[in-house]
Amino acid sequence: MFAGRPRFVRNGILLMAVILTLWHLQLIPQRPSSEWTRHEHYMNHNASSSQYPEPKSSFNWSSINFRYPPHNSTRLPSPGRPLPRIQHRFGVEQPIAAKKQMERMLQVKEVFLRAWQGYKKFAWKQDALLPISGRGREQFSGWAATLVDSLDTLWIMGLRDEFDEAVAAVAEIDFGSSTSNRVNIFETNIRYLGGLLAAYDLSGREVLLKKAVELGDLIYAGFNTENGMPVDFLNFHSAKSGEGLVVEGSVVSASPGTLSLELAHLSQVTGDPKYYSAVSQVMDVFYQGQSKTSVPGVWPMNVNMMAKDVIHGSTFTLGGCADSLYEYLPKMHQLLRGGEPKYEAMSKMFLKTADRHFLFRPMLPKEDDILISGNVNVDEKGNPVLDPETEHLTCFVGGMFGLAGKLFNNADDVETGVKLTNGCVYAYRAFPTGMMPERIDLAPPEWKSHLPKGFTSAKDPRYLLRPEAIESVFYSYRITGRREFQDAAWDMFTAIAKGTETAYANAAVLDVTIDGGKLPLEDYMESFWLAETLKYFYLIFAPPDFISLDDYVLNTEAHPFKLTK
Ligand SMILES: *[C@@H]1O[C@H](CO)[C@@H](O)[C@H](O)[C@H]1NC(C)=O
Ligand SMILES: *[C@@H]1O[C@H](CO)[C@@H](O)[C@H](O)[C@H]1NC(C)=O
Ligand SMILES: *[C@@H]1O[C@H](CO)[C@@H](O)[C@H](O)[C@H]1NC(C)=O
Predict the structure, then answer these.
(1) 556 among the known binding-site residues?
(2) Which residue's CA is the closest to the ligand 2 atom numbered 6?
(3) Please, are residues 70 and 62 in contact by the beta-carbon 8 Å criterion?
(4) Which residues is 389 bridged to in the sheet?
(5) Which of 139, 251, 305, 343 has a Cα at 20 to 30 A from 479?
(6) Which of 42, 48, 160 to mutate to test the pocket of ligand 1 (most atoms within 8 A of CB)?
(7) Which cofactor does this sequence's record say it needs (predicted)?
């Protein structure tokens, strides 16, 4: 599709005609002041318009007789003081500037629609599209992961017919059977449950809530353990029997640490406190252990939920394996509107530790004032030692610092978030393809002499269609209002759209450090390409009060949950 762009640009008049037509078709509001009436219309719940078959699964997940009934007496807290404003107060935009962003937004939508059509044609109702060979693959139990993950993006982009068709398909998903006997609770929670909840919040379609409750009860079945901690992988058959499950000894901390937002929100929308109550037990374990680790404020990358041990361990990261455990601390504060003080306490302690031990200013040729988040290992003497390696997954940290800085009135944290975001933007620009590798080493400030400046190596040169960098660019834009973030996003988008394009959709790149020529691609398109990456790209060019960060909190798969007022 991008091959067609130069011709498109040459025909400037045609372009204008197209834009004006779209404008009149109300795809775009005619004035920034009447901001997006069509989108507001989408936001109106209209449950009566849902005429879908009664959802049915071959197993009723709420009918299990638990051997170990989960803790069920913790109630959702009532809200605390009103939260501070998160978003910058944007003024009315000049028509010329608005038009430019609108054009960008529509190009993002085109890339999305093309990939969605590829999925529909070759992998409909399967978990993922193989975007080069034009086939499908099951990866997450076979419940149409890409379809469920994309629902809210379809709605946000105004693709109403595609949305309706997808919701009809959701009604037919059977959560009573799985292509794998081991169900990944983390992925099921963030992609499927998160996707259903957000699509329900946006559209009000009852069938989505019913399916969310089915899945919520499936995840809840994972708490049927002696100590009330959830399993990492659900053995499908044992879970159905209710006989009781055994918690794994060692798991990555993000896994048990990333159930809170979805389960709390499920309790909010259903009024059934059991989901929140069960997950509160998990977060209490993290709360009690936070100051007792060898780097107080953060938890080791691996934790042992069987022993409720989140203290022992000497490897620490804010990136993959841990990331969303930290991401959800300020987000839980926001979702619960400050009603549970633990999340504020945990957030603040974590942010201080992250700032002190993990963030560094790499040595760069032009001495750009950016920050990078590295890893920390504890040496034999018990001292934390910085490992100046970073990865694409860690790029969410900038957005998290920004959001937390706003929530807790800390301007320094907001500025830190901007510098971290710029660190990832820098990393995109530093490579010839305009994309950041999956994993890189950097030169920390104390390395002064002979070493090459800046990046020392790309440990893993792939780009896997990941969203974390644009996620932070989006947060930084919405929080500070600085235009430069939209321009950075545009550079990133054009590089990614060009480098990942296949005949049917977009694919992961095997090496982004190559200069020139056709890039080697992998025949896989993760569902988060449609759920997250393209959603953030779309939203950064959309009018800023659309999916405002003061109205929604986004889960770690970019699914927006509506905040209660
Ligand atoms: C809601 O749905 C009904 C039935 O499809 C339709 O007649 C009505 O116009 C819709 N209302 C709104 C506000 O969209
Ligand atoms: C599932 O089981 C619960 C508890 O036994 C029951 O209340 C509910 O009606 C059942 N749902 C369906 C769809 O059969
Ligand atoms: C709540 O927990 C208690 C104690 O484990 C159990 O007896 C009871 O059945 C549970 N109630 C619900 C509604 O699950």
Answers:
(1) yes
(2) 63
(3) no
(4) 441
(5) 343
(6) 48
(7) Ca(2+)
Token pair in block for residue 36: 């997006």
DSSP 448-472: -SSSPSSEEEEEE--B-S--HHHHH
Q: Of the candidates 146, 167, 169, 107, which has an alpha carbon nearest to the alpha carbon of residue 528?
A: 146
What is the predicted pLDDT for the residue at 444?
A: 72
* Alpha-carbon gap, residue 125 to 487, rounded angstroms: 36
- Report, as residue numbers or ranges, the catalytic residues: 187, 323, 438, 468
* Nearest-atom index, ligand 1, CA of 48: 2
Taking the C-alpha atoms of residue 313 and residue 293, their distance in angstroms, rounded to an integer, is: 8
Tell me which residues have their CB closer than 6 angstroms to ligand 2: 60, 62-63
Ligand 1 centroid, distance to 336 Cα (angstroms):
32
Give the separation between CA 300 and CA 382, rounded to whole angstroms.
13
Nearest to 162 by CA among 219, 203, 215: 203
534 vs 146: CA distance, rounded Å: 13
Cα of 160 from ligand 1 centre, angstroms: 13
CA 423 to chain centre: 19
Query: Distance between CA atoms of 530 and 467, rounded to whole angstroms?
Result: 10
Unique residue bearing structure tokens 């939508």: 109
Q: What is the 211 CA–ligand 2 centroid distance (Å)?
A: 13
- DSSP per residue, 477-503: HHHH--THHHHHHHHHHHHHHHHHB-S
pLDDT score recorded for residue 16: 55
- Given the CA of residue 73, which atom of ligand 3 is nearest to it? 1
235 strand-pairing partners: 182
Facing residues of 458 across strands? 440
Ligand at shortest distance from the CA of 44: 1
The answer, yes or no, to whether any atom of ligand 3 lies below 6 A from the CB of 69, is yes
Closest protein CA for atom 4 of ligand 1: 49
What pLDDT does residue 123 have? 98
pLDDT at 349: 98
pLDDT attached to residue 51? 64
Report the C-alpha gap between 196 and 553 in whole angstroms: 15
58, 60, 207: residue to mutate for ligand 2 pocket, most atoms within 8 A of CB: 60
CATH number of 54-562: 1.50.10.10
- Can you tell me the distance from the alpha carbon of 81 to that of 50, in angstroms, rounded to the nearest whole number? 37
Distance separating alpha carbons of residues 554 and 565, to the nearest angstrom? 16
- Whether the CB of 281 sits within 6 Å of ligand 3: no
Closest listed residue to residue 426, CA positions, set 356, 367, 507, 374: 367
Q: Is the distance from CB of 374 to CB of 388 less than 8 angstroms?
A: yes
Query: Which amino acid residue places its CA nearest to atom 14 of ligand 2?
Result: 60
User: Cα of 265 to ligand 3 centre, how many Å?
Assistant: 21
| Binding site membership of 44 for ligand 1 (Cβ less than 6 Å) | yes
Verify whether ligand 1 is closer than 6 Å to residue 37 (CB atom). no
H or E segment and range at residue 197: helix 194-203
Which residues of the chain fall below pLDDT 70? 1-53, 445-456
Strand segments, DSSP code E, in 229-314 are: 233-235, 251-252, 302-303
Could you tell me if 493 and 418 are in contact, meaning their C-beta atoms sit under 8 angstroms apart?
Answer: no
The predicted pLDDT at position 15 comes to 55
Question: What confidence score (pLDDT) does residue 14 get?
Answer: 53
Per-residue pLDDT at 515: 85
